[in-house]
Write a structure and sequence with these properties.
Structural class: alpha/beta
Largest sheet: 5 strands, mixed
Number of domains: 1
Shape: globular
Order of helices and strands: HEEHHHEEHEEE
Amino acid sequence: MLDPDQRTLLTDVLKPPLGYAFDQAIAATYSLDLTTLLSVPLHLALFANKDSRDLLRNPVAILEALNRTVSKLGIYCQHGAIHAPEQQHVLYSQLEPAVMEVRAPGGGSFHPKFWVLRYRDRDDRIRCV
């Protein structure tokens, strides 16, 4: 659980605990900014790669790592509340399999806000944050 009185960078929160690797994540939110969302699987992919500089030099490797990471995400948001970026980029389309728009029953709003990330170690122990 994050301390509400302390500022934390999203990238610091995504970093796996020592000895663990990202396994899966689920999140729910009202609105969704695709640029911010794209940063999550990209950072998770960078943390998973031993040589992130090498990964950043190879666009095909970035795309493969992004696809592998996005396949482990489930993001739920209010139907119609996705904020499209001003500039189009092919990487935004890679997020489609992970994003599910939902409607609250009875005409209400879907408004939870949480992220749960699961990490595994070599002994198949699980840790969630």
